[in-house]
C-alpha cells in the first residue's frame, strides 16, 4: 500500500512541476533558516559549557553605590584571594586570582610573537578542566613557569614537545614551558587565552603588584578573581557569606561607596552580560530568543504555505478522490495517502535544506562570527531532525489530508464541487499573519540600520585619520620618548607622536577623590584619568573649547589638568579655566577644556575625563602618519626607527579607525542577520501570497470570464483581484505597526546614545510590503485577466 | 446590415489532419432579424456564435461588423466594439454568484463608465421592464432558473446593444419558462433588437424570422 502511495505521490510531484517547485522550495528555504538558526542557538547556549565544572565557576564582582546609583565592577584588590581562602575556605573548591589579560611579547630563540594571556593562580588549570597535552594541572606551581595553548606552542616549536624550553616574557623574564593545553573552543570566554603565567611571577615582574602584596593594599582594584564554589554550596549562600569581605577590610574613609561582593556564574558570562543600575539586564540571550522566535515563525510560515498550496491544488485532486472513494477507499486510507505524500515532500525539502546548510555554513560562520561545524556524525541531531520531519509532515499535511478526504464522491464526480467560503477566510488570516511578521521584520531591519548610521555619524571629537596606536607591551620603550619622537619627526614619516595611559579607543582607568570649590558634600567623584605626553593634543587633533593645550613652555603644566566638556558639566564648573582641583593631596590648575572625545562605547555617554601629563604611566604610543606619504612607506620608516630603539619587539600597530570600527561589529552583525532573515521571511510570505492568489484566481475563473464577456478590461480584472490583497496587507500593516514600534523602542533602549523610530520607517515598510504584494499578485492576476473567457466558461 | 461573414474558415490541427470547425461560412445578418442557428451537437453552432460575438477568432475569411473589418482590428478595438453593440445570453445564465440581481445588471455599466445616477436609472428601467423589482436584492442562488435567465437577459440588454447573441437560452429551463423567454425575445425583436440564437428546439426556432442549419461546420441551408 505504502509503495502505491509513494508511486502516486511521486507522479503527482512530477506532473505539477511548478507547484512542486514552489512547495518544496518554500519548505526547504524555511528549513534551511530553521537549521541555521538552530545551530546558531545551540552554539550560543553551549557557550562556556565545555568546562566540566562550568556550573560551579563564578567570577567575583563588586557592586558599589555612587551618588544614589549602583555600578558593578570587575576589578578587585590584591589581598582578596588570600582573605577568602582564610575565612571561607569551606565555600570554595578553587579561588583563582588573575591579572587582566592582555597582549605580551613572547620570545624564544629567534622567534618573537605578541600573544594574549595573563598571570593566574595555579588552580586555574583544574578549575577550567583544561585538556593538557603536555604537563599536568599542577604545572603552574613554580613561579618561573609558563603554560601555553597548543597553537601558541606550535607557532614557537612546531609539533615538537616544548616542555623545558625557555621563553622570554616582555623581553625581561625567562620562564620555562611546563605545560601545553588544547586550544579552547571558539564559544568560550577564554578562547583568546594563549598562555598562562604563574600568579607569583606577577609580583616579581611588577613593582606595583609587589607593593600591593607586601602592604596588603585593599584600596587599589586592579585584579580579577575567579572561583569554583564547593559542591553543594548555593551561589546565594556563598554570596551571603563573602559579601562584606572588601567592605570590612577598608578603613572608614575608603568605603563611602559601600562595596558588596557578588558572584557572576559562568553560565551568565556570555548570555547575560548586561548590567543596568547594578543588576543583571539583558545580554546576548535577547538575541538568542529573538532569532529563536524568528526561526519558529519562519517554520510556521513555511508550513502554512505548504498547507495553503496543497489545499489550493485540491480541486485538481478532487476527481481522483471521488474515483478512489467510489471504488472503495476508506477515508482513513485517503488520509494516509495524503500524509505519505506530505512526508515525501517534507523529506525532499529537508534533504535539500541539509545540502544548502552544508554549502552555506562557511559564509554563515563568517557573517555570524562563529565556527559552527555541521553535526553530521551526531546521532542526536539526526534523531531530532527525523522528529522534526515527522512533525512538520503532520503539521503541514494534516489539513490537506483531512480536507481532501472529506469530499463527497458524487458531487465531486458531477463536477459540482466547490470550495467553501471558510477555506478562503482561513487563507486570508494566514496571509495577514505572514505579512504581519514580514512587516515587523522590515521595520526592525530599518531601525537597526538607522541606529548603526546614527551612531556612526556621532562626532568623534578628534581626527583619527592616519593615526596609529602601538601598545607598549615591554619596558624597552621606557625613557626613549624624546629621542624616538625627534627621530620619527625627522624621518618625515610621522607628523606628531604622543603617549598615553589609555588607548584612544578605550578608558583604562577611572579614579575618585577629586575636590574643588563648590563641590557638594557627599558627592563621590569618579573620572576617567588619562595620563598623556605633551604632544597628545596635536597628534590626535583634539578640539580646544577654552583655555590652552599642555605646553613644554610652562613648567607648571606637570600638575595642570585639561578637562573634557563632560567633566566640566559633571563638576558643575563655571569658567573652568584657572580653577584649582585638589587630587591626591596636590593642587591642579585647569588650563583648558576640550570637546568630548569618543573613546569607549559609541552607544554610551562620553565619560567625564581629566587629562594630565605623566610620562611614567603610559601604555600606548600614538603616531599621526604624514598624509603626504604613502601609508606603506611611512609604516616601514616607522618600523625601522622603532626597531632601532627596541630591537626585540615585534612591530604591532593598529589604525585607530580600524579598532574603533570593531565597536560596531556586534550591531552590524545583527544588522546583517536581520536583513537576511527579513528578506527570506518576505520571500516565504510571497510564496504564500502567490499560492493564495492562484487559489483565488482559480476559484473565480468563472466570475472573471463573465465579467470579461460583459465588458471588463484587463485592467479592471487586475484591479479587482489585486484590491483584495492590498486590503489584507493593509490589515497586516495596521497590526504590525504598534508591535514593531514597541519592539524597536525596546531594542533601542539597550543603547544610551540612540536614534528614534521615525514615522518614515513605517512608510517605507508599508510601501515595501504593498509593492511586493502587487508584484506577486499581478503575475497571477494578469495571467487570469488575459485568459480567453470562452475557455473558462466552457468548463462549466 | 449589421454583420457579414465571407468565406470564413476556422480549423484546428489534430494529429496532422486539419479539422474544420467552420467551413466556408457565408452569412449576413440584417438589422431587425431574429435568426436561429440549428444543427446537431458538434456542428459548430456555438463556435459560430462565439466568432460572431468576437470571443473567438478564426483562421481565414472576412468578418464585417457595422462596416468595420473585424478580421483586421486589434484586440482592444474589437473588445470596444462588442462591449458597445453586443449582449450575451448563456444557457447556464453565468450570473456572478457573489452579486445581487441589481449588481449583476449594473456590472456592464460599470465597465462602460456610466455615472452613478445613469446606472441607477438604467438598471431601474430594466428591473421594471422584466418585472423583477421585488427581486433586486436577492442573490442568483435564491432565484429559479427562469428568473435567473431573465436577469441574464436584463444584463445583456441594459446597455442597449444592437445585437443579442443567445447560446441555447432555454436549454436549462422547463418548457413553460422556455416559452416565456421566447415570447420575451420575440417582443424584444419587435422593439427593434437584432437577435441571433443557437437552439436545439424547432419550437424555439419557429419564433425566429430565419433559421440556418449547420452540419460539420458547413451551412446546409440558409
CATH classification class of chain B: Alpha Beta
Count the beta strands of chain B: 10
Largest interface, per-chain counts?
A: A-B, 16 and 20 residues
Average of per-residue pLDDT values of chain A: 87
Largest sheet properties of chain B:
6 strands, mixed
- The termini of chain A sit apart by 35 Å
Strand order of the largest sheet of chain B: 6-7-8-3-9-10
In terms of DSSP E residues, the strand content of chain A is 15-25%
Determine the fraction of residues in helical runs of chain A and give it as a percent range: 40-55%
CATH topology of chain B: Rossmann fold
CATH architecture of chain B: 3-Layer(aba) Sandwich
**Roughly how many Å is the radius of gyration of chain A?**
34 Å
The biggest beta sheet of chain A reads:
8 strands, mixed
CATH superfamily of chain B: P-loop containing nucleotide triphosphate hydrolases
Number of domains of chain B: 1
Rg value of chain B: 18 Å
Q: What is the residue-mean pLDDT of chain B, rounded to a whole number? A: 88
